[in-house]
Amino acid sequence: MKILIVEDDDRFANVLERAIGEAGWTSERARDGLEGEHLMRTGNGDAVVLDLGLPGRGGLDLLRRLRAKGSTLPVLVLTARDGVDDRIAGLDAGADDYVVKPCALSEVLARLRALLRRGGGTGPVLRYADVELDPARGVATRAGQRLPLRPREYALLEFFLRHPEDVLTRDRIYEHVWEHDFDGLSNVLEVYVRYLRTKLEVLGSRLIHTVRGRGYALRREEEPS
Ligand code: CA
After folding, report:
1. Nearest-10 Cα torsion for 76, 78, 84, 85
2. Residue 92 C-alpha to ligand 1 middle, in angstroms?
3. CB 173 within 8 A of CB 189
4. Model pTM?
């Protein structure tokens, strides 16, 4: 499990990173809003610990932008603001949970564990265009018709749906969908993209586009080159 930390307070972030390491997870940290936005999009995290008061771009803004893109990445908001209004704003913006500082690290870790449990295999239905995938039921459909996907095709589609319209590099897809179980020189990714496209395109137009020299993107139309 990899936890992304977006926090400008060095002391707190260091203690949190150490605790996350002791819990057996890895972490990567951003120190301001702009770095944070980049990290949340590209950091391959399983969950985010997000501070609200950040230089550059505020945490609430980051969260809204992440959710507006359709991301379901679990986010634990961590903040010194303890007003009820702030808490409601955080949850409305798409936070999955909320901890007010100062807080016990053990509480942060317990809440992260709960979020991660809710992640893998459950969570809201993912949708893009007319494609839907229900992680809780393990079912994917296009235009209401069930897609007959093998496990790796399903995992690949789920990864695309969790990052709609992002250009996903081959490395990033391999890291997530194949973990370490692949031969980096093989064309297994191309083969699986082809399988997945074939099954999707029986029911509609192309959604998984090749982005030359970069990777693949799930989007409605080819971007004009
Ligand atoms: Ca702060």
Report:
1. -80
2. 20
3. yes
4. 0.55
CA of 141 to the centre of ligand 1 (A): 42
Query: Torsion over CA of 77, 81, 84 and 90, rounded to 10 degrees?
Result: -30
The dihedrals phi and psi of 131, each to the nearest 5 degrees, come to -100, 135
Whole-number Å distance, alpha carbon 82 to ligand 1 midpoint, is: 13
Alpha-carbon torsion angle 79, 60, 7, 111, nearest 10:
60
User: What is the per-residue pLDDT across 131-158, written as a single tens digit (0 to 9) for each?
Assistant: 999 876 778 999 999 999 887 888 899 9
Q: Backbone phi, then psi, for 188, in 5-degree steps? A: -60, -35
Residue 125 CA, ligand 1 centroid: distance in Å:
32
Q: For residues 84-103, give the mean pLDDT.
A: 80
Q: Is 28 exposed, middle or buried (0-12, 13-18, 19+ CB in 10 A)?
A: middle
Reported in sequence order, the residue ranges of the chain that DSSP labels E, i.e. its strands, are 2-6, 26-30, 47-51, 75-79, 97-100, 126-128, 131-134, 139-142, 145-146, 167-169, 208-211, 215-218
- Output the CA 5–ligand 1 centroid distance in Å: 12
CA of 135 to the centre of ligand 1 (A): 34
Whether residue 148 is preceded by a cis peptide bond, meaning omega within 30 degrees of 0, is no
CB 1 within 8 A of CB 44: no
Beta-bridge partners for 97: 76
